[in-house]
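Hi R.,

Quick one: here's the NAD(P)H-dependent oxidoreductase subunit E sequence you asked about.
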Amino acid sequence: MDLHFLDAPPTDTERAAVDAVLGPPESGWDGGERQASDLRFAHGGHAARGRRDLLLPALHAVNDRVGWISREALDYICRRLTLPPAEAYGVASFYAMFAMERRPRRVVHVCTDIACAAAGSDRLCAAMTERAGAAGSADPDAGLVWHESPCLGLCERAPAALTIEAGDPPAYSVAAPAEAADLLDAPADTGTRDGDGAAPAAPASANGHRRPRTTTFSPAPLPGPAPEPDAGTAVPQSGDPGLILLRRVGVVDPESLDDYRSHGGYAALREALRLGPSGVIREVSDSGLVGRGGAAFPTGRKWEATARRPETPRYIVCNADESEPGTFKDRVLMEGDPFSVIEAMTIAGYANGAATGYLYIRGEYPRALSRLENAIARARDRGLLGTDILGSGFDFDIEIRRGAGAYICGEETAIFNSIEGRRGEPRSKPPFPVERGLFGRPTAINNVETLVNVLPIVLMGGPAYAGIGTGRSTGPKLFCVSGSVRRPGVYEVPFGATLRELLTLAGGAGPAPLRAVLLGGAAGGFVRADELDIPLTFEGAREAGATLGSGVVLVLDDTVDLAAILVRIAAFFRDESCGQCVPCRVGTVRQEEALQRLSLGTGPRRTDLALLREVGAAMRDASICGLGQTAWNAVESAIDRLGVFGPEETTLKEVR
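And here's the predicted structure, written out as tokens:
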């Protein structure tokens, strides 16, 4: 494509969307009207390039307003930021939620990942195909287009769907469990490029079939049934006085700062200011807190290394790009207790000597985004963010950056690239984020669950917190239980509880016999039905040859086609690989091909099993980041522990 559209103006709607993010242009050189003075000199280019981190918000603004990003709109963004069009196109085309070709304003994302696949998303997709055509195929002037989507983080109510309708502001609707009739019952829109004249969506149908739990929310909800309780419905333990991390979810009004403070909110920040930065880090270190995203790196050590760096400014990044299939705990925290996330980030900023924090949230979480934006605004209004917080002389503020559908951006250095306005590709390490992270400065990055754990640590003290759980796995842990259980949802248990105890808490398995449990998500591994006494600790899972990962507990009964689940996992990693390194880029494709042949019985079984082992070992040993390094984990455990494709009788070398 021609990437130089110097004479192609954007529409008024596209221009307004970009200017709402970047402000009005200052001269003809950055997209404004050409004046006589512009022909004599140019200025401001360095300042414009210094705002490259606004590229992702600008792309979102156009995509949200119009429904797709035209070449003219992209060129206008490039003028405003003085970026080469080829670079901006490379960024925009990297993200699955952005469209670079004209499409209907209404887009339906139907989850087909492992939890939804086990719950019958194939039937939902078949119904959508019958009534709306194949996924991704639609006339731009049609009423809507639908896509198969990776995990939407609604696994406890699978199968799930997210509907987004472009406009000012855009409209969102979540349906879970979803049915095709409810997703399609809407009038066609005009499909015009500038988005003018689009008709509103119609309410969900009421033709007698089972109505899904459809929730609508700001900034502009699609018409539909009244919203049901949201985050609280995902926490079956809601109201339990023994909870620590989930004690406010489903209890407080998530949009009320006063309600949050009446339930102990901001007491931890006041105590942190009393302890001082080094005192906070000492308590976090004494607590034994480790990262809850899967890597389990000691949080105190990370904070201490960041705080000791001489370079400034330093940054705090909250990794809210919760994209691991089967994971939804961070969504529940952000939707049900958003002020706790903001308070925890503020404490992290204080301890690490950072004045700015970035909260990177996945684009498929519009409700959580709305709740967090409200929490930040309310905190600023009350002097809990901004300058001189609580009269302490400490300045700290938070900016939100919204992802756009890229699993790889859950990797810590890929987040940095995404925030900086680059393709979300991982960086080689070292240097590590505590040395050179966001914008090349020392950065402490933690996920939502890890940060929220800091609040009880500060209040009860590190040693008291370390008394919860086991010696090497301290504190409470959130587990995302979904699949064939009677009460799916997020459960909080102390480290050391067994898998059997967790499933009992969730009401036990469904009526069909239990076949296997997937621990840790697509990057985790399977355990058998006779291995439920595994202790849910990092060391216990490791000794059992499994992993806790991000806390996924997907229960599968014997009605589920495990071979199809493995193919879906392989397809997920193939789709989500950034393609930067050969072992992952090629290996994920070869893995999917071999699994397809094995599931269909069309190839030499022994050869394909041996090939899978060689490819898996190459990905694990040579991939740049955790995506390629873990892409073989679940497949390996299914072959070795579950015997999905039968016994192996030879190796690839012997076959050759």
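Confidence is low (pLDDT under 50) at residues 186-218, 223-229, 650-656.

Cheers,
M.
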